[in-house]
Specification:
The protein has helices spanning 27-50, 54-57, 61-81, 89-110, 125-149, 157-162, 165-180, 196-228. The protein has one domain. The protein is built from eight helices and no strands. It is mostly helical and 248 residues long.
Length: 248
């Protein structure tokens, strides 16, 4: 007779980790990104309080790019706080490019009397605070977040031209909006280099080419810098040597 066989038992498989347990929480990164988002929202709120034409206010690239940055930073802060994977670089890179455009164009073109496109006017105290938040604090905050709290090597060369979709679509938006407003309307065109009354459509086309090439060069510069910058110290223990810049 053979010995009766006992039923085989299999060890229960460990439960799958929940999305919130796929990594380690990053409270410092979360707090920093929350502050950047708060700076953007505060600047927008202050401008909204002082504005008597919200349609004009929200037509500015500055406001739109800061809204996008606030969304991305708040989203990234939530993921860092709950230990979820980082946002895709194509999203964070786009937000970084757009807010960088905002900061650079303001400081080197709109605030520069020698540029020929300066926009200088008297501002109330609230408008001055909003101006610094939206044109200086948030671009610097986005750059520091990229350099200190994100893994390098995530930006792809093809994304450099894909990111230009929004700035290119902003051009017809501004021109169509201006064409629908009566001549002489204050703020008919959001920026001097898009003012058809001053430059005509031929001049606007030339300005668009120059700015478009500059924005593409900036996108390429960010992409190449991202490939060659060192891994931030806070991430060195969590980067897989074969993960090509992805968090473990």
């Amino acid at each position: 007779m053979t010995e009766p066989t006992s039923p085989t038992t299999t060890a229960a498989a460990p439960p799958h980790p929940t999305p919130a347990a796929t990594g380690r929480r990053r409270p410092v990164a979360a707090a920093f990104r929350a502050l950047v988002a708060l700076a953007a929202l505060t600047g927008i709120a202050l401008d909204t309080i002082e504005s008597d034409d919200l349609g004009r206010l929200f037509s500015y690239f500055t406001i739109q790019s800061n809204i996008l940055l606030a969304i991305v930073c708040a989203w990234s802060a939530h993921r860092a706080w709950t230990a979820r994977p980082a946002l895709p670089p194509r999203i964070t890179g786009a937000a970084l490019l757009y807010i960088s455009i905002t900061g650079l164009v303001f400081h080197f073109v709109l605030s520069n009397d020698a540029s020929g496109f300066a926009m200088t006017s008297q501002r109330t105290p609230l408008e001055s605070v909003a101006n610094h938040l939206l044109h200086t604090v948030t671009p610097l905050g986005a750059a520091l977040d990229w350099l200190l709290f994100t893994a390098p090597g995530g930006f792809l060369l093809r994304q450099a031209w894909q990111w230009l979709a929004y700035p290119l679509l902003y051009l017809p938006f501004a021109l169509i909006r201006g064409a629908l407003l009566a001549p002489g309307t204050d703020g008919r065109y959001p920026y001097p280099f898009l003012d058809v009354d001053l430059h005509g459509y031929t001049g606007i086309a030339m300005n668009a080419v120059v700015f478009g090439l500059a924005f593409y060069a900036l996108a390429l510069t960010l992409t190449l810098l991202d490939r060659h910058r060192p891994t931030p110290p806070a991430l060195r223990n969590r980067i897989s040597p074969t993960a090509a810049g992805r968090l473990k």
